[in-house]
Amino acid sequence: MPPPPVRSPSSLLLCHCRLPFHISPQTRLPLSHNSSVRRRFHCSAVSALSSDPQIAPTDLTTTPPSSHILSIRESLLSRRRTAADVAGEYLDRLRRTEPHIRSFLHVSETTMREAEEVDRLVASGKDLGPLAGVLVGVKDNICTAGMPSTGGSRILEGYRPPFDATAVRKLKEAGAIIIGKTNMDEFGMGSTTEGSGFQVTANPWDISRVPGGSSGGSASAVSAKQCVVSLGSDTGGSVRQPASFCGVVGLKPTYGRVSRFGLMAYASSLDVIGCFGASVIDSAIVLNVVSGHDRFDSTSSTHEVPDYASFLMSTDHFESTPLKGLKVGMIRETIGDGVDVGVISSIKAAALHLEELGATITEVSLPSFSLGLPAYYVLASSEASSNLSRYDGVRYGNRATVDELNSLYGDSRADGLGPEVKMRILMGTYALSAGYYDAYYKRAQQVRTLIRKSFKDALEKMDILVSPAVPSPAYKIGEKVNDPLAMYAGDIMTVNVNLAGLPALVVPCGFVEGGSAGLPVGLQMIGSSFSEEKLLRIGHIFEQTLPNYRFVPPLLFLELV
Amino acid sequence: MALIFHRGIIANSQFFSRSSGVLFRRLRASRSCTSARGEGTANTLKEELIQVAPKRALEPNTHGFEAIIGIETHVQLFTLTKAFCSCPYVYGSRPNTTICPVCMGHPGTLPVLNSKVVEFAVKLGLALNCGLSMTSKFDRKHYFYPDLPKGYQISQFDIPIATKGFIDVDLPVEFGGGHRRFGITRVHMEEDAGKLLHSETGSYSQVDLNRAGVPLLEIVSEPDMRSGIEAAEYAAEIQRLVRFLGISNGNMQEGSLRCDVNVSVRPIGQSKFGTKVEIKNMNSFSAMNRAIDYEISRQVLLHSQGQSDQIFQETRLWEEGAQKTFTMRKKEGLADYRYFPEPDLPEVVLTKEFVDKLCQGLPELPEAKRRRYEKMGLTMQDVLFLANDNHVAEFFDASLENGADPKLAANWIMGDISAFLKNERLSITEIKLTPFELSELIASIKNGTISGKIGKEILFELLAKGGTVQSLIEEKDLVQASLIFPVRKASEFIIIVDPAAIEALVDKVLAANPKQLEQYRAGKTRLQGFFAGQVMKESKGKANPLVLNQILGVKLKGES
User: Fold this and answer.
1) A430 touching B, CB under 8 A?
2) How does pLDDT run along chain B (560 residues), one tens digit per residue?
3) Residue at B452 is within a domain
4) Do residue B68 and residue B192 come from a single domain?
5) How many A/B residue pairs have CB atoms within 8 Å?
6) Is residue B76 located within the same domain as residue B154?
7) Is residue B353 part of a domain?
8) Taking CB atoms and an 8 Å cutoff, what residues of chain A touch B137?
9) Distance between CA atoms of B254 and B233, rounded to whole angstroms?
10) What EC identifiers does the entry list (chain B) (predicted)?
């Protein structure tokens, strides 16, 4: 019989304080009193890491990722550290790493003041929100009152929204401190951040490579510990792909789980706000905070929000086969042609690890899988062409200086929008035009229905589906700039999930060759609608038991040394 | 937010296709355009008809041709808040004072449907005898214009909330009367756009987004109308409907009711429609009537001169000053609005219970009222007048409830009451006269308690000051007869108004008091009171004091 799940974040505290960079073993010793009885599962036959020892991290001690959120909370409650100390540490690191990776479009000037506010709260003995003192990076397409929010676009340069997105409001209410706005491909259109109207973010694992996108800034910021957790948005893989590239946990919730109010719409029927964390627990805690119905978003779900974090039990309570009976479907179409061999072997190793944990792995076929990519690009572009109509220079944002209406529209948009955005607006406008609607938009909707059904069928037989999050590891900056089709093809693993509206979790699972320390690979786990709880539990067990789990990028590793 | 556009914008604006002609409406308010049917007064109605009549006399011969007319009507709903956000809408507010990030189309904002809009749409759908779509959806209609914040209008495209209905109309007697039934193609929900305020010089325009996001119902008719008066009556009936239903004030001047009319002409017997022309900018029903008849004659003339190829598919504006239509823009092919389903809003699903409840709550509609009044034996003129305005109809019905004779009540309402309303610029809900007192008044006259003339006097007192018929009768008598007589109950009064009877009484009193008569004629005129008292005594207090004094005055002077 499995031990009961841990009920509250405070009881989780006992087991997740293993932050090497600020808690010494001595200080945490009393907390891990039962570490002697902790069982570890070693996959002797297969390592989830690359078989090439040259690129494996040098530190071979197994350090399962711990919750940064909970350790901050613990240190605040125990008065070992102040929120100002924590904020200072992160800001210092941000300042040192930012010139290399450029994750942020805007860094808040009030972080220290807000941290001191948290300290006053701690001193007063009042209840702390679940994210008290936690520094959160927010993707720039998510509105923040009093902070610029540009969606990575020049057309909104300097735009400050008059309101907070619902997700941001909830973060603030939970005590979080918004540390800044992270870089992204303009309006979410891109997979590298090269499409940002302002700057290109680099991957902390190899600064000559892209961090992925469109939420590249949010992923690299968490990877480089510039912030504790971050919000991203996922329309076709924009959280999961950069999570894979940067070696962090990325969660794309079910469509409607998190309010879209305040998220600059790219493709409204696909967009979701997701989150990044260094561990599954951190992602779960953030999801807890931002989930729920919102009266300002009619598409947000009234589905009950469980306490996602409470389902994550400590490794100390794991049975030898904690995933016993779990049926995992490996999507056949995602491990074949066109997928990097290193990625395939990492994913297969991860599957074996799941098997070690008691799950049964079966290959499943989703026949409509390959139709997802073209359907996605038709639907997303169509909706984008509509959603981006509002950026006309009339009410806010950049307006061209002209004296005639047509030029006002034309020049404002020509100057303010980047080439990728223009291309997608054109494609979408074309797809929605009279005479083409049936051949493109309507047909793509039919494909979407097929895809939804094929996922539903597969998830009736399987508990979860797994696949790579991306067919390749992070590529070089500039590598695919002139080959949009190759870049679009990189979304093959993720777009289907958006079309079906399902939740998916990406957990780092291994490395492939590249850079100085190898490049991370993420395992994508897909569940049925509103099964985040299950995905997080599986992801948590997976990461906590994965041997040699150490996804600290060289940039940070050097920092620490 | 006052946005300045520079020179050139106006000329250019004409190339933008739009769904409504609001933008081009003249902003100056002109009293002569007041929607007469809506005012609910007989005199304005007549004026309106008189204005129209000579126009019709000038109509060219349409022999051999028939006009096909279809109308798109936009009805602005008077919900407390806008269709998709919580902003209020108050006509005439200072520009950009009732706006929020949602109706300004700020990034990241989402629409949330106001449920009242659905309720009102269902009510109108039911009133127009339509079939309801139990599941309908919203779509986006795309075009660029500065008054359209999101670059698209949230509307309904292929699944409107109501379809395939009809509306019954009675044409005014002055136009030969007759009953008509016009088909309704569809009713759909959508949001209004803001307004551009063009500067006097035309060098810049300002955007007012107060109206952006205000809910509209668009009603599309079948092309069933054949003349200006039919079209005007159709629109007037829509106005009556929305007012009876309480979903809109239907005010054309404020733009709460806007009609775009499509007119084409074809030789009788031809099944193919002629080229249709859209007319906008009509601020009253009479303007609609005149604009359409003008347009018909223009097109007939071109047809009969063999120049039917000179009729273009275009939008023409009605110019009140010139009494003509002018080309506003020629359509270069069909506008492509790139409709697609609004992903930010879920489908609108109606339940049977919801619809049934609204159906049961519907008030009596104008057509039903007219038929009911007709059965009471009222003339069509009376019927059309009374059923035109729901407040008037309510007043009339309430007075009938108290037993008033329908014809008499109709006469009072259409005559003196409505004249008073017109003079005082009041609506029937603002006067102090209650339907109950009107019925009392009618009864008092009918049973002979008071004369019609006294009734009229009492009516004006009731209208201006209120009170009851009974107390006014008492009060009047007291003022004029209190010198001699103690107060009596009004029920004891049976006023003698017959001058011959009063004259006989006067003669009798004069004959009985020769001494006093001599004194009076010698100059002691204040003795008139004495004589009046005697006459009144003789009449047992029943002589009408006015008549009495008049006759007495003449007799005392010995002029007869």
Assistant:
1) no
2) 444 443 333 333 333 333 333 333 333 333 333 333 333 333 433 333 333 333 443 444 577 899 999 999 999 999 999 999 999 999 989 999 999 999 999 999 999 999 999 999 999 999 999 999 999 999 999 999 999 999 999 999 999 999 999 999 999 988 888 999 999 999 999 999 999 999 888 888 999 999 999 999 999 999 999 999 999 999 999 999 999 999 999 999 899 999 999 999 999 888 899 999 999 889 999 999 999 999 999 999 999 888 888 898 889 999 988 899 998 877 656 679 999 999 999 999 999 999 999 999 999 999 999 999 999 999 999 999 999 998 999 999 999 988 888 888 898 899 888 888 888 888 888 888 888 888 888 888 887 777 777 788 888 888 888 888 888 877 766 443 333 344 444 444 456 767 788 888 888 888 888 888 888 888 888 888 888 888 888 877 777 777 788 888 888 877 54
3) yes
4) yes
5) 126
6) yes
7) no
8) none
9) 20
10) 6.3.5.-
Q: Which residues of B touch A298 (CB under 8 A)?
A: 110-113, 344-346
A238 as an active site residue: the answer is yes
End residue of a domain, out of B319, B334, B349: B334
From B15, which residue of chain A is nearest by alpha-carbon distance? A406
Q: Is residue B355 part of a domain?
A: no
Q: What is the SS3 assignment for A419?
A: helix
- Domain check: are B304 and B173 in the same one? yes
C-alpha to C-alpha distance for B225 and B488, rounded to whole angstroms: 63
Are B418 and B537 members of one domain?
A: no
The three-class DSSP label of residue A493 is helix
Please indicate, yes or no, whether residues B53 and B109 belong to a single structural domain of this protein: yes
Query: Alpha-carbon Rg of chain B, whole angstroms?
Result: 31
CATH code at position B517: 1.10.10.410
Residues B95 and B205 in one domain: yes
* Residue B105 with chain A: CB contacts under 8 Å: 390, 395
In the residue annotation, A214 being an active-site residue is answered as: yes
If we measure between CA atoms, which residue out of B103, B140, B345 comes closest to residue A386? B140
Q: Could you tell me the residue range of the domain that residue B478 belongs to?
A: 366-492
Q: Does residue B18 sit at the A interface (CB-CB below 8 Å)? A: no
Say yes or no: A264 contacts chain B, CB-CB below 8 A: yes
* Same-domain pairing of B81 and B207: yes
Query: Structural domain tally of chain B?
Result: 3
| C-beta atoms of B104 and A395 within 8 A | yes
User: What is the rounded radius of gyration, in angstroms, for the C-alpha atoms of chain A?
Assistant: 22
Catalytic residue selected from A139, A170, A181, A225: A139
Dist. CA A365–CA A236, nearest whole Å: 20
CA distance B345 to chain A (A): 6
What DSSP letter does each residue of A426-483 carry, written as one string? Answer: HHHHHHHSTTTTIIIIIHHHHHHHHHHHHHHHHHHH-SEEEEESSSSSPPBTTTTTT-
Nearest to B9 among A405, A429, A432 (CB): A405
Q: Is residue B528 part of a domain?
A: yes
Contact A466, A526 (CB under 8 A): yes
Do B193 and B330 sit in the same domain of this protein?
yes
ipTM entry: 0.88
End residue of a domain, out of B315, B334, B353? B334
- Which pair of structure tokens corresponds to residue A201? 């973010």
The amino acid occupying position B81 is T
H, E, C per residue of A343-365: HHHHHHHHHHHHHHCCCEEEEEC
Contacts of A411 in chain B (CB under 8 A): none
